[in-house]
Design brief:
mainly alpha
Length: about 130
Amino acid sequence: MNKIFKTIVLIAGILNFPIGIMMIVQAISSKAGEALITNSVAGAFIIFAGASLIWAIQEVNTRASIILWNGFVRLFNVFLVSYATTVGDVPQEMIYTTGMDLVLAIVFIIGSVKVTGIPFSKLIVGKTN
C-alpha cells in the first residue's frame, strides 16, 4: 500500500509541472492583463504543489500533512468546478480533470492517514509521530 500510494502521489506531482507550465505559457501568449497575472500565478502555484508532493513522498511519515492538504485543495477544486457547471459553460476537459482530482483527493486524504497510521486530527494540523 505504501509503495502504491507513493507512486500515485509521485505521478500526480510530476503531472503538475506540465499543467503549470502550460498555464503560464497560455497566460503569456494571451496578453490579457488580469488573466496574465492570475493564470501565471496559478500556474506557478501548481508547479510548486507538484514539487511539494514530490518532496513529501521522500519522508511520508513526517510530511504526510502536505499530501493531505493537497487532497483538500483538490477537493475544493471539485466543489468550485461543480458550482461553475451550474452558472456557466464548463469545457468537457475540465469535467474530466475534475473527476481525476476527486479521485486523487480521496486517495490523498485517506491514504495519508492509512499509510502513516497518524490520526487525521493530527495530520490536519501538521503534527506527525
